[in-house]
Amino acid sequence: MLARNGFPPGVPCWIDLLQPDADATMAFYADLFGWTYQVRTPADAPFRYAYALLDGEIAAAVGTPPPGDAAPEGWTGYVWVESADATAAAVEANGGKILNPPADIPRAGRSALCADPDGAVFGLWQAAENRGIQATNVPGSWNFTILHTADPTGAERFYGAVFGWVRERFELPDGTEIGSYFRQPGYGDFLAAADPEIRERQAADQAPGGFADAVALLGPDEGAGNRWGATFAVADADAAVTRATELGATVVVPLFDTPYTREGVVRDPQGATLTLSEYRPPAG
User: CA 276, 278, 283: angle at the middle one, nearest 5?
Assistant: First the structure.
């Protein structure tokens, strides 16, 4: 995997999960993804927070909710920003809400928890020593976030104003539209500095032009309200879903195929949903 040390502004950079029973959370994901953990909070702290490591690289974080803070349901993705305070002000100015105001995390950075105008929850991350996720797009790591919304036009307006995201239609090579995604202009150039072949590799896999800039997917609300969902890469979707259910998860969406993936959605034993996705690019 490519080593990461920071992200451009407006790019998702962190993901965490806060649940009542941190030991159970850690055990479930350790077995499912092979994670080990580095606990970051002191033993006498009123909450727990740990980095999840994949082959020694940070892949996510898990823990329990800090007392007095709004506790998001399920996995929460954070977007890299230059100023958590200025971006929080932009969230409010564009109809969003601040659930937990910007606050410093000693040495790590400054964060805030927000909701868009339709209630989908996301975080802001202003980095100090914590430079964001290191392991991505390999089995056992965070792969993508997807915004489930009944109002993609409203989402386009809000996230464009707050982060500068641009909505693009997702089309197959024959022109068939199969969805849409957000891109952050210039992100592909940032990635190409460390991975010069990224665009050629994506073209070989028949990804749409400009997909190197992609930062999030858009999907239907699925009747569950507007929300952000988390997708994790796996080597074998069938095996991963089977193992998740053996560990106590329930199947929310049975395994299905897309033009680029095979995936299924499960709910972990404490109620967080996640998508398990095996990358299967179209045959050349």
Answer: 155
Whether the CB-CB separation of 173 and 259 falls below 8 Å is answered with no
Tens digit of each residue's pLDDT (9 = 90 or more) over 123-166:
999 999 999 999 988 999 999 899 999 899 999 999 999 999 99
Q: What is the pLDDT of residues 240-265, one digit of tens each?
A: 999 999 999 999 999 999 888 999 99
Q: Which of 226, 235, 230, 267 lies closest to 16 in space, CA to CA?
A: 230
**pTM metric for this prediction:** 0.92
Cα of 12 vs its chain's centroid, Å: 7
Tokens 């995201």, located at residue: 165
CA distance 103 to 101: 6
Q: 249: which residues sit within 8 A by CB, 6+ positions away?
A: 28, 266, 267, 268, 269
Give the tokens for residue 37. Answer: 């953990």
Q: 8 in helix, strand or coil?
A: coil
Spatial separation of the C-alpha atoms in residues 178 and 184, rounded to whole Å: 20
DSSP annotation of 65 reads: P
Question: What domains does the chain contain, in order, with CATH numbers?
Answer: 12-127 (3.10.180.10), 142-279 (3.10.180.10)
Residues 6 or more apart whose Cβ sits within 8 Å of residue 162: 87, 90, 91, 94, 96
